[in-house]
Specification:
Elements: E1 9-13, E2 19-23, E3 28-29, H1 37-52, E4 57-63, H2 69-81, E5 86-93, H3 96-101, H4 115-124, E6 126-128, E7 132-138, H5 141-145, E8 152-157, H6 171-180, E9 181-189, H7 194-201, E10 206-212, E11 215-222, E12 230-231, H8 234-240
Helix pairs in contact: 1-2, 6-7
Bound molecules: S-adenosylmethionine.
Length: 252
């Protein structure tokens, strides 16, 4: 048992050698243990997002903070490849005790240089320097996203699965996400479920496949057309599955 473990969370080794956690409340891991926590964060979120977004200042909505891999992997990727970029990350997280315990989590050595950031976020929910601003909102993501209009270049949609946390995958939720995003923004998610893709499509997103030899396929979505990814033929998928519906708030 590690210092991080408590009644609701336990540390789990994943297949790329990085640790993730298991949530007893949601009966789910925070990352795919097969893809690996750090690798999943990089290949399903950070790398595809930064392939599309080339700006000098990038605003990111990280849904939800969890162990913070998407936020920390963003810092790693940007500092290694675009050291002059300014990054602003906004991340809701409902689980206050998780955030407080992150200073005890066993992060991969790639994140060692961010110890001061992890500590500041765990203790105060805010970190800021000349290039980086990060805030964790301790509360409900559904309320938080409504505060923003036309703000985000990137959204990491990394909630627990649609079956265990459906409130963060409905058509109404993605309407608020769309309004919070810029027209040329990009959303990344590990979900390839047709229900998820439909909820995005019904809000005007174009859908793309994020696939690679060494990880399970994922989805990229944008209000604008993207050139660097294979388009998902959503009409064909609907015609093959005519009874599938997007999740709706009223059904939960
Ligand atoms: C799959 S984990 C996120 C993993 C995270 N992106 C990472 O890289 O470590 C999902 C997180 O969503 C949080 N959560 C669940 N419902 C929420 C809500 N309504 N608002 C904010 N956070 C929520 C959970 O507490 C959990 O930490």
């Amino acid at each position: 048992m590690s210092e991080f473990d408590d009644d609701l969370h336990s540390l789990q080794l994943s297949d790329d050698g990085s640790y993730t956690a298991y949530s007893k409340e949601y009966d789910e891991h925070y990352h795919s243990t097969k893809d690996g926590a750090l690798k999943e964060s990089l290949v399903k979120h950070v790398l595809p997002a930064f392939t599309c977004v080339m700006k000098d200042e990038v605003s990111i909505l990280d849904i939800c903070y969890g162990l913070g891999f998407n936020t920390l992997a963003t810092l790693l990727h940007v500092q290694e490849n675009f050291p002059d970029k300014k990054i602003r990350i906004y991340s809701p997280e409902l689980d206050v005790s998780l955030i407080k315990s992150l200073k005890y989590f066993t992060y991969p050595e790639e994140f060692e240089k961010y110890k001061h950031i992890i500590l500041a976020l765990s203790n105060t929910g805010i970190y800021e320097d000349e290039k980086i601003y990060i805030e964790i909102f301790l509360g409900d993501a559904r309320e938080y996203v409504k505060k923003f209009k036309n703000k985000f270049d990137i959204v990491y949609q990394d909630a627990f699965s649609p079956s265990s946390n459906p409130i963060l995958w409905t058509r109404e939720y993605f309407k608020d996400i769309r309004e919070a995003m810029k027209d040329d923004g990009v959303l990344t998610t590990y979900s390839i479920a047709l229900k998820t893709r439909l909820a995005l499509y019904e809000n005007g997103f174009h859908l793309y496949l994020n696939s690679g030899k060494e990880f399970r396929s994922a989805t990229i979505a944008s209000p604008s057309e993207l050139n660097n990814f294979e388009r998902v033929d959503i009409q064909h998928k609907i015609s093959c599955n005519p009874d599938v519906q997007s999740l709706k708030d009223k059904d939960l």
